[in-house]
Every structure is written in structure tokens, then in C-alpha cells.
């Protein structure tokens, strides 16, 4: 093959885009929104099992859970904004620090922190 061959090699993206997605920004926004929506759902559904199985949840812990779930839903709708990704990271940190109120909140914080870190990695790879 010569250097002027128009056929792309196996490492060359066909359209200049690394991911091959038609709209990579939209795909990444959808991933971030899905992670936050799932997190909000899990947080709200976790209140009762934590109360029954894990001991007493204080009013502050319940307030934190509901507040973080509401924030997650709001951020899920705002993922098109660049600052929403940073605020989503702060949400994960706040949930992890919720472990000072109840240990199960720290566990949820670590789990969703890892999921969020993966979403940030995918975002970086796709939009690079």
C-alpha cells in the first residue's frame, strides 16, 4: 500500500470521530443522566430497608437521602451543561460523607462513586 492510499487502516476512525457514534455528546449526556436517575431511585428505595435492617436512620440521614435524590434528578436533566458533571461529582462525595450519619450511606457512596468515575472515564474517552 502506498502513502496516498485512500483506504483507512484498522486504527483510523472512518469519519474522524474516535467513538463512531453519530452524536457522541448526546450519548455521554444520556449516560450521565442514566447514572444519576438510577442513583436517585436507589436512594429513595433504600430508605425503608435501611430503617428495617440496618438500624435507626436519623431525620438528618433521611433528609440527606431525599435531598441528594432530588439533586440527582435535577442534575439528570441538566447534563448538557458542563458544570453539571462537576456538581455530579460533588453529589457522589456528599453521599460518601453521608456515612457519618449511617454506614450504609457510605457504602452507597462508594458504589455510586465508582459508577460515576466510570461514566467520567467513558465521557473522557468518547469526547477526546
UniProtKB/TrEMBL annotation:
Transmembrane segments: 27-48, 60-78, 90-119
Record has Transmembrane helix as a keyword: yes
Record keywords, A-Z: Membrane, Transmembrane, Transmembrane helix
Record has Amino-acid biosynthesis as a keyword: no
Segments of this protein annotated with the region Disordered: 1-23
Name of the featured protein: DUF4233 domain-containing protein
